[in-house]
Amino acid sequence: MTANSSIQTFLDDLASERPTPGGGGAAAVSGAIGAALVSMVANLTIGKKNYEAVSDDLKAVNAKAEALRAELIRAIDEDVIAFDSVMGAYGLPRASDEEKALRTAAIQAALKEATLAPLRAVKACFEVIRLSAEVAEKGNLNVISDAGVAVLAANAGLRSAALNVFINAKSIKDRDFAEKQLAEVNALLDEAAKTTESVYQTVRAKIGS
Question: CA-CA distance, 91 to 89, in Å (whole number)?
């Protein structure tokens, strides 16, 4: 599956004429990169001189970041599976009224999962952003710029995954379901934007730029 590909293979597949992997997978990769960088800053702070007081905090941050990275790697394949399910549902026969009804139900069920899959990625990226704030505050100053890269990568992943929520929710007939997911995404987008900018400015101040 895509999650087990090398970076070169993944990018080659991403650039190809095939529809998957696509933007959803790229969003998950961005978030996973952010999580990995959070771990990097944490690991280069834990146990270091002058950082003993925050080592336990950053051990906890590292554990959370590693779990989120694993979740976002899984999201790469979840995006492919969700897309393939939608395409498979659209390809179902529709010669009779019964077939049409079954096809419509299958499409709607697939669209719901294709909305929930990127929403899970949005939530995971949001948690990476929160962890980025902690490593930006407490992390080793020698690698503090990486905390800034982490939050920017995670925010790019969040905003990108949100686009997949939007495009799939648009076609869902159960508007109560769709509007609930859209409201959650929009709230996370707003909060993520504020936190990302705050972390970025914190990092710049610590760098002295």
Answer: 5
